Each structure stands twice: as structure tokens, then as C-alpha cells.
Amino acid sequence: MTAVDILAWIVIVIILAKFTALFLFEPKKWYTFSQKVLKRSKLTTLIYLILAVIVGNYLFQEVTIIEFFASTLFLSLLIILSFLPRADEYLKFADVVINQPASELRKQFGLIIIIWLALVIWAIIALLS
User: What's the pTM?
Assistant: First the structure.
């Protein structure tokens, strides 16, 4: 079993656990778990960043940056489909975010913007070479 196979199994288990919690049991249990994780935002950010580096390291040993971006498009479309039934609520959240000063947005989202820009530059270089 390759590293990517293991990563796929991890995603499968997480999705099945989430759907089981949401649809077969009490949805509030998943929400309560999520609240506990998200309340410690700095620690959670650090953990997710470390996990992203580890997963990315294994992923990019077997997948090209171009394949990654093609897969990201597919995943983005699925995520958007999951948001559409509650679009009005997400738009209200977006209004709160977008009405902040640019300096605050850079402070809140600077790390992820830098990561995405690095990935985009890498993909452009790969596509043009």
C-alpha cells in the first residue's frame, strides 16, 4: 500500500465517520466535536499546518502539481455543491469577512494566501516547462 493509498483511506474513514455522526446519530455530536477543535484556533492552525506539510510531502512524491490542481478543481466543485443548500447563510458570513479592512484580511488569511500563491506559481512553472 502506497502513501497515497493510506491518505485515501484516512479520507474515507473521516468522511464515513462524519456522515455516520450526522445522519445516523445526533448531528450535534459532530458539531460539539468540531467546536472543541476549533475553539483552540492557534493550536488547531499549527496542527493543520504540520499535517498539511506531512500530507503534501507524501502526496507530491506520487502526484504532480498539475494533477493536484486538476483534483482540486473537482474537490472545489463538490464543496460548492455542499454549500449551495445553505447559500444565504454562507453569503452572510462572506459579507462579514469582506467588510473588514484589507489589513485585517491579510492578517487573518495571510498564511493560506502565501501557501496558495506558492502552489499556483509552482503549477504555472510546471505547465510552462
Answer: 0.80
